[in-house]
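Researcher: Next sequence.
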Amino acid sequence: MTATAAAPAASRTYPSLRAAWIPLAALCLAFFVEMVDNTLLS
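Model: Next structure:
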């Protein structure tokens, strides 16, 4: 009974996690570009 109760909650939070993956990837890419830029400039 707990598995069927957790399944709708998991499927409900999965699209929000998939939608939040896009800005998180962009933020990680921005930090990576900034780190490479600081390494090349110094």
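Model: Residues 2-41 form the longest helix (40 residues). DSSP finds one helix and no strands in the chain.
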